[in-house]
Design a protein that fits this description.
Layout (H helix, E strand, L loop, with lengths): L1 E6 L2 E4 L4 E9 L6 E7 L6 E7 L4 E3 L7 E5 L5 E6 L8 E9 L6 E4 L3 E6 L1
Parallel strand pairs: 2-11
Antiparallel strand pairs: 1-3, 3-8, 4-5, 4-9, 5-6, 7-8, 9-10, 9-11
Length: 119
C-alpha cells in the first residue's frame, strides 16, 4: 500500500506558474511509475503526465512543453512544474502511484489539490 499527499495547489493568473508536490510513503520499492492526473468540473479524470521508475516520461498533448514531471531517486516525492498556465488547466490535480499486486497493477491515489487559473 502507498500513501500519497499532494500540496502546492492554489490560485494563479494565466501565464503564471505553480509547482505541485506529492509526498509518498509505504511500499515505495514496489512502485512501477507515478503520475499526475486532473479532473475539471463535469469532466472525466485525465492523465497529465507519467514518470517511470527509471525516469522516462510522457505527457498529455495539452500540457507538453509547459509542464514538467520529476521525482526524487527513491520515489519519495513527485513534482509537477506547471508553467504558462491557462484557464483550461483549472482542475483538481491528483497524484497516482502504480504498483504490482497479485491481482494485477494497483493504483494508489492522493486526496487531490485544487489548481485554479484565472484569465
Amino acid at each position: 500500500q502507498v500513501t500519497l499527499v499532494e500540496s502546492g495547489g492554489g490560485l494563479v493568473q494565466a501565464g503564471g506558474s505553480l509547482r505541485l508536490s506529492c509526498a509518498a510513503s509505504g511500499r515505495l520499492f514496489a512502485v512501477i511509475a507515478m503520475a499526475w492526473y486532473r479532473q475539471a468540473p463535469g469532466k472525466q479524470r485525465e492523465l497529465v503526465a507519467r514518470i517511470q521508475r527509471a525516469g522516462s516520461t510522457m505527457y498529455a498533448d495539452s500540457v507538453r512543453g509547459r509542464f514538467t514531471i520529476s521525482k526524487d531517486k527513491g520515489m519519495n516525492t513527485l513534482y509537477l512544474q506547471m508553467d504558462s498556465l491557462k484557464p483550461e488547466d483549472t482542475a483538481v490535480y491528483y497524484c497516482n502511484a502504480l504498483s504490482p499486486s497479485e491481482r494485477g497493477p494497483e493504483d494508489s491515489w492522493g486526496q487531490g489539490t485544487q489548481v485554479t487559473v484565472s484569465s
